[in-house]
Specification:
Layout lengths: L1 H8 L1 E10 L2 H4 L2 H20 L11 H12 L6 H11 L4 H29 L6 H70 L1 H12 L9 E9 L1 H25 L1
Antiparallel strand pairs: 1-2
Helix pairs in contact: 1-9, 3-8, 4-7, 5-7, 6-7
């Protein structure tokens, strides 16, 4: 009885489902394949070669830079300075000093002879005045020798010390430049090694990007009811459709 009534008067109807596809499902087939390949490949790398995600290790050039940095710069202590001072001292300074002293002594001998001659001319040879004059001349000569020797040795020391300090500073500058060159070269080598090491990872990342990246969002299912108007409902709808059509035809005839 209930079935007959339902057929006559209609029923609430059955539930209908509709599904919205995920972003992944909206990708074309080749893109889905590329995404699967990329994700599977990265999973394999993470499991089997985790070191691929790290930068390349310390290379020999960087080790040279490290060793050079540990050595530090050349100090300007007494030992270093003394070594360079000996290196740059003029080896002929003593010869110059000795030659100069001999020339001064020769000049002194000539002056002493002149003093004797002057004493003879005035009849004072062998007297106290002669001895005092000769002593004064010898003292002046010794002072001249001392001043001359000091000047020659000081000039030699000043030149040698200037060259020593300049050489130490230049050596430190060269070492700094060498350290910088080794550091920069080593870093370039490390970056290149890192790029080569991570090439498989980069290839998979490029593959994922070509497949439009990692899909986001998701689909869902919506549920609804579709009512059944029944026999009477359908008949009523058909009658209404006929009435509306007859009305339209009559209006057209009157026009």
């Amino acid at each position: 009885m209930s079935g007959v009534v339902g057929n006559l008067f209609g029923s609430k109807g059955a539930r209908a489902e509709s599904t919205t596809p995920t972003s992944y499902n909206t990708l074309p087939g080749f893109a889905q394949d590329a995404f699967k390949q990329g994700v599977t490949g990265i999973q394999g790398l993470a499991t089997n070669s985790p070191n691929i995600f790290a930068p390349a290790g310390f290379n020999s050039t960087q080790q040279q830079a490290f060793d050079l940095a540990q050595q530090g710069f050349q100090p300007t202590d007494a030992n270093s300075f003394g070594n360079y001072l000996s290196m740059f001292s003029n080896p002929f300074t003593n010869d110059v000093v000795n030659t100069t002293n001999q020339q001064i002594m020769q000049a002194n001998a000539g002056l002493l002879n002149q003093i004797k001659g002057d004493a003879n001319s005035v009849g004072a040879f062998g007297g106290t005045r002669l001895g005092s004059a000769q002593a004064e001349q010898n003292r002046n000569t010794l002072n001249t020798i001392a001043a001359t020797d000091a000047g020659l040795n000081a000039g030699n020391f000043n030149n040698a010390s200037a060259n020593a300090l300049s050489t130490i500073n230049q050596n430190n500058t060269n070492r700094q430049q060498q350290l910088s060159n080794l550091t920069n070269t080593g870093l370039l080598q490390q970056n290149q090694a890192t790029a080569q090491q991570q090439a498989p990872l980069t290839a998979l990342q490029t593959l994922l990007a070509a497949a439009q990246g990692i899909p986001v969002g998701g689909g869902g299912t919506s549920l609804g009811a579709q009512a059944d108007p029944g026999f009477l409902g359908r008949a009523s709808q058909i009658a209404a459709n006929f009435a509306q059509a007859a009305k339209a035809i009559g209006a057209a005839g009157a026009a």
